[in-house]
TrEMBL record:
Pfam families found in the cross-reference section: GTP-bdg_M, GTP-bdg_N, HflX_C, MMR_HSR1
GO molecular function: GTP binding; metal ion binding; ribosome binding
Cellular location(s): Cytoplasm
PROSITE patterns linked: G_HFLX
Name of the featured protein: Ribosome LSU-associated GTP-binding protein HflX
Length: 459
């Protein structure tokens, strides 16, 4: 086991103290990070092996997102997984000593533990244990700002908690009577609690179904507006929100934190040649995203499915950028993103400002052999204008040009053409009564335009 004692204690990685109900300062929870690495393991979605340093940095970032005081980090290399405790007996005992010596209150493991493994480790170490899924759920619980986001987080929490009820109660064998709504004679507390969880989950699912219908209505409303939707996706902390703020002058939280953005945000944006779009900033993806979260946040993530163009933001300076790319594409595939959407997707290599000259030159050489890709820095703005040009050209591939005549007396229709299309050519008749127009319309407006001007010598 490789130990990194005090590495974060003096490096500004201590969480801030909080204030309790009595206005007393409460110190942050003292935590031990345990990175569990199976030897020769590769990513589920890639034939490349993740770097231990990058994995450790990621789980550390997740822990910092809930303001833990990281007292120590440990890297444990495993040949195989123990069904009872995930780690072998020797490593379990070694960590038990660390927990006791350093007054550790919480152990965070960078893997998903079974309920039994989590329960056994908590008993042995005599402290709370949080696995990767539980940690991500904690972050989402703190980040959710909208009612929809809070509903989705609670549903995900309950789905996770349901399989761990055996750990959550110390009075499992206590029997309740058969009166009232508690249940039949002999029902255990565990069974009652599981039933209560199931009831609450069904209520949340019904509420989220209403949210899904509302989102569907909003999407239909947007279809009546001539603005295509451009969705930003990417690995968490790749710089989506920084780019979003740069081009829209928005105020989305953009910090060097994992999952800084949770609730989706939309803004209208005018591209360099005048085309207007709706830009959507979404929750960041991550490796091994808990299935509970994917299911609970599906209504939100489905906004990506209705997008006219997807922009995949990558942290090109990250040492595991290629593996992160595969992870994002895997989640998009699971969501049901179509082959057409993927083929038209624009890939953005962000954070070029973190590369030295040699690294930047290497990336630019790779760029020449890659389609629909551009390198930028959303922090400095370098390359962002070129990106907006690429977005405009990509959206323009689905445009269609219509030629038709229109009486100049129909001022409202003429104004509609200029508002919803791009007038390429206009010739007014000598008597000033008619206008011959050639206009380009986006895919979102082309059928409306055809119906509107089908009696106007449409070509």
């Amino acid at each position: 086991m490789t130990k990194h004692k005090d590495e974060y204690r003096n490096g500004g990685h201590n969480g801030p103290a909080t204030v309790n109900f009595h206005n007393e300062e409460v110190p942050p929870t003292r935590a031990l990070i345990v990175h569990l690495s199976l030897r020769n393991a590769v990513s589920e979605n890639s034939d490349q092996q993740r770097t231990v340093d990058a994995d450790l940095a990621e789980i550390t970032g997740l822990a910092l997102a809930i303001e833990l005081e990281i007292v120590e980090t440990s890297i444990v290399s495993l040949r195989q997984v123990s069904p009872a405790t995930y780690l072998g007996t020797g490593k379990v005992n070694e960590i038990e000593q660390l927990v006791a010596t350093d007054d550790i209150e919480l152990v965070v493991t960078n893997t998903q533990l079974s309920p039994g493994q989590q329960r056994n480790l908590e008993k042995i170490w005599n402290c709370k244990v949080l696995d990767r899924t539980g940690l991500i759920l904690e972050i989402f619980g703190r980040r959710a700002q909208t009612r929809e986001g809070r509903l989705q987080v609670e549903l995900a929490h309950l789905a996770y908690q349901r399989s761990r009820l055996v750990r959550s109660w110390t009075h499992l064998e206590r029997q309740r009577g058969g009166s009232g709504t508690v249940g039949g004679p002999g029902e255990t507390q565990k069974e009652s609690d599981r039933r209560a969880l199931q009831t609450r989950m069904k209520k949340l699912e019904a509420q989220l179904e209403k949210v899904k219908k509302t989102r569907g209505l909003h999407r239909k409303s947007r279809q009546k507006v001539p603005f295509p939707v451009v969705a930003l996706v990417g690995y968490t902390n790749a710089g989506k929100s920084t780019l979003f703020n740069y081009v829209t002058t928005g105020n989305v939280l953009a910090k060097d934190l994992l999952f800084a953005t949770l609730d989706p945000t939309m803004r209208k944006l005018e591209l360099p040649r005048g085309r207007k779009v709706i830009l959507s900033d979404t929750v960041g993806f991550i490796a091994d995203l808990p299935t509970q979260l994917v299911a609970a946040f599906r209504a939100t993530l489905e906004e990506v499915l209705s997008a006219d163009l997807i922009i995949h933001i990558r942290d090109i300076a990250h040492q595991d950028t290629e593996i992160q790319r595969v992870d994002v594409l895997k989640v998009l595939g699971d969501l049901g993103v179509t082959d057409k959407q993927r083929s038209q997707m624009v890939e953005v290599w962000n954070k070029s400002d973190l590369l030295d000259e040699e690294e930047l030159l290497q990336r630019r050489n790779l760029l020449e052999r890659t389609d629909n890709t551009i390198i930028i820095s959303s922090l400095t703005g370098q390359g962002v204008n070129e990106l907006l040009d690429v977005v405009e050209l990509s959206l323009g591939k689905n445009d269609d040009i219509l030629t038709f005549s229109l009486p100049l007396s129909q001022g409202a229709d003429l104004a509609w053409v200029y508002e919803h299309g791009d007038v390429l050519e206009r010739t007014d008749s000598k008597d000033g009564t008619m206008a011959q127009l050639s206009a380009r319309f986006p895919s979102t407006r082309i059928e409306v335009a055809r119906k509107k001007f089908e009696t106007n010598n449409l070509n």
